[in-house]
Amino acid sequence: MAIEREPGELSATGSVNGGWGSDWQAGRRGLERQHQMINSVVLSGRIGKDLEVKTTPSGVPVLTFGLAVTRPQSSESRQAGEDPVTDWFNCVIWRGLANYVGTHGKKGGRVEVRGRLQSRKYTGQDGTERSVVEVLVEDATVIDYKEWEGAG
Fold first, then answer.
1. What is the full DSSP assignment across 125-150?
2. Domains with residue ranges and CATH for the chain
3. pLDDT tens, 73-97?
């Protein structure tokens, strides 16, 4: 004998008027949510060059710079006198945030950036096609301010 339920009423297994198929579909939707693609980056490092905010032809400020991030070193490698390894990341910042970092950041100063990775292709001056992966910065915190120089 089938158990009658009102439309929208949950069964004992949590499905809505659909039995096994609905349970499977709900499980599949949950699995899809668990496996969403994520493109998120958080880096803390040192600015690799003097900063210069440029302006696009349409008047939008943009700042590009290399960010040096030193990898953590094991105590064994430190004791052995091994040099730490530094990774370099190309960062791109737009609009008001570009002005903020360009004004307060300095070469060698520490900065934390949060954003996403972006890849693009371009043709170099020698005519060869090149590709680059950059950090498109959405938020940044300048840790070492220019104004702090000489203070203390």
1. TTS-EEEEEEEEEEEEEESS-GGGTT
2. 9-37 (no CATH), 41-148 (2.40.50.140)
3. 888 888 888 888 999 999 999 999 9
Q: Examine the pLDDT at 25 and tell me if it is beyond 80.
A: no
Give the DSSP per-residue string, 31-50.
HHHHT-----EEEEEEE-S-
Contact present, 16 and 29 (Cβ < 8 Å): no
The pair of structure tokens assigned to 116 is 């996403």
Q: Which two tokens stand for residue 8?
A: 């929208």
Query: Does the reported pTM lie above 0.85?
Result: no
CA distance 11 to 143: 55
Residue found under tokens 């096994």 = 20
**How many CB atoms sit inside 10 A of residue 19's CB?**
11
